[in-house]
Amino acid sequence: MNTVDYYRKNRNVIRTSLGGMVEPPEGMVVCGKSIFSELVKEPMPFCELLNLMFIGNSNSKEIAKILDLIAVLACYPDPRIWCHRAGRLAASGKSSPGECLATAVSVYESDMFGGKATIKCMQFLQNGLKYCEENNVSVTEFIEAKLERKEIIRGFGRPVMKTDERVPVFMEALNKIELPSKKHLEFALECEKILVDKKNIYMNFACPYSAFFLDLGLTPETGSLLITTLVIPSLAAVIAEELPREPENFLPMSIDDLEYCGE
To answer: Which CATH fold would you assign to the domain 82-242?
Structure first.
């Protein structure tokens, strides 16, 4: 299909399987379910709703519980963390609540942590598994080549502590549920086994939840959106604590705190 035909086909048409307004009494349908005649009779918990909209699975409460667990494990409302600091600084400057949250979410999109790091971790697991399968390469050979080239292996290692306290908690819960596939999770665990043996490097929390997202069929970009959605309560709470306080009280600096290094 050429470009002109493509635009003609999509002109004045919005295609979605997610939701839309319909005639009463349904009013609004979300992924084939009526909000008013189905979803609010016994209000669907938030992570079950996320599961329905992101993954399209309306029956698995187990998956929703894992999403709940990710949200709790990702909830580190320490104002010193980079994205919380940015949101709190905006709140201290009396930006609007929405502006503060947008600031925190934007800063959360980091190469090292957060949304963008999730994309890179999911791409590593997805592309690495595909490469090994298509080229008949062992995981050991794959990781050894990465180490030889001194490449960054996403989802492994931590800047300060060697291990991630969230991983065993998450893995214990994940091992109790059935998934259509756990091939990305198994690949991640095999990578960790090799990295621990050769470099004493363990996976961080991004690795198992990224593998979980991939095994559910999410793309790296959708996985990034989902993890960002799950950490918003932590971001918002840090901002909410700061907003009622006096202006500019968060990490004020004196002239003496600046070291000028120019000529």
So the answer is: Cytochrome p450-Terp; domain 2 (1.10.230)
Q: What share of the chain is helix, strand, coil (3-state, %, to 5)?
A: 60, 5, 40
Average pLDDT over residues 214-220: 96
Chain-centre distance for alpha carbon 148: 29
The pLDDT value given to residue 106? 95
d(CA 155, CA 77): 22
pTM strictly above 0.70: yes
Does residue 253 or residue 98 have the better pLDDT?
98
* 3-class secondary structure, 215: helix
Q: How far apart are CA 53 and CA 30, in angstroms?
A: 8
- Apex CA 131: angle with CA 56 and CA 167, to 5°? 60
pLDDT for 1 equals 64
Handedness of CA 220, 47, 182, 165 (dihedral sign): positive
- What is the chain's alpha carbon radius of gyration, rounded to the nearest angstrom? 22
Q: Compute the half-sphere exposure of residue 252: CA atoms within 13 Å on the CB side of its CA.
A: 5
Give the pLDDT of residue 24. Answer: 76
CA distance linking residue 234 with residue 224, whole number of Å = 16
Structure token pair of residue 31? 């992924």
In single-letter form, the type of residue at position 219 comes to: T
Distance of alpha carbon 75 from alpha carbon 197, whole angstroms = 31
| Strand pairing report for 28-30 and 19-21 | antiparallel
